[in-house]
Amino acid sequence: VKTGLLCKSLMELYEIYRDQGKFDEASILVEEAYNCVAVTNNPVHPKVQDAASLLIECLVCKGDFDHAETFAQLTLESLKDPGNELS
Description:
- This protein is mainly alpha-helical.
- Helix content is 79%, strand content 0%.
- It contains four helices and no strands.
- It has helices spanning 2-19, 23-40, 46-62, 65-80.
């Protein structure tokens, strides 16, 4: 429950900073939110995927295309892992 509340708060603050165009601050918050849900859930859990997509979006808005591409590739690879039984 605590992790869910913390993650929700981080995501809401992320959205405020993103909407203000403060992408450096926003990326710190969304990265923490991602780490929070990734530690408590499987990599293919919807909350982890939602946080990953927001982090990628933020990195793109920031102009950090190299990190966005790397993170997107890692996220895709985790989805393709046969151990996830998604195929």
